[in-house]
Amino acid sequence: MTSASRPGEAEPESSGLLRGTSGNEQAMSLLTALRESDRVGTQQAAHRIPPGVGKALSVVEEAAESTKL
User: Fold this and answer.
1) What are the extents of the domains in the chain?
2) Single pTM value for the model
């Protein structure tokens, strides 16, 4: 155990990866964190848009989809 680590914490290897976790597990964990971060950011942005503007944007989007612009 190094002086920087505490009991019960995983020690980082020289590559910066945690022991006992495969590359796939780390990739999945990263993707999960990114997805959650994106979801939270999208929700925060949506809360800043006034309801009337959101409705107008929705109407414009539907019109664009129906005319295949």
Assistant:
1) 23-67
2) 0.45
